[in-house]
Amino acid sequence: DAKTTQPPSMDCAEGRAANLPCNHSTISGNEYVYWYRQIHSQGPQYIIHGLKNNETNEMASLIITEDRKSSTLILPHATLRDTAVYYCIVGYNNAGNMLTFGGGTRLMVKP
Amino acid sequence: SQTIHQWPATLVQPVGSPLSLECTVEGTSNPNLYWYRQAAGRGLQLLFYSVGIGQISSEVPQNLSASRPQDRQFILSSKKLLLSDSGFYLCAWKGQGAREKLFFGSGTQLSVL
User: Fold this and answer.
1) How far is A104 from chain B (nearest CA, A)?
2) d(CA A91, CA A101)
């Protein structure tokens, strides 16, 4: 599986958009980009994933560059409850494949 | 709907004692199952995964073992715990489909003293 690089921490003001970057320059053609988040002492929670096109759901938007070497997770209106560690992961989504989690980005939403 | 159960939520064990953590999944069949460990303030480390009954793959050589006696049951074990086994243990499952995602249990906080 390709590796990812994320900043270790970021701050965001409550109500503003949080833009979390992720570099995955060695991503292969059919590897997906996944985002999960983990609130302290809980299991990680799925947010969104995509292959080539930008994706949006009720939680966030995922912007993937045309060369697929980087992506950005956007939380459009961050709340205090969005404070968590955000993991960007790339991997194949076939049977038997596992997703490897790196250190993630610790997002602190401040009032 | 699918659910994943993991227990116990917290566990304090002395060094040298055995360990058994259990994880069960409901509402799906033939899931891929995973055990992760997270040391304090660190990312998740994949320990074991299983694509079927009796099929276990280990990612990291260590003091732990895993078993899958039934399709939706995944067990993490140790014969003798070490201090370094302390951490937050997470079970997860994923379906076999092309766009499946990981679903995690609520985790077990293990303290080895």
Assistant:
1) 7
2) 10
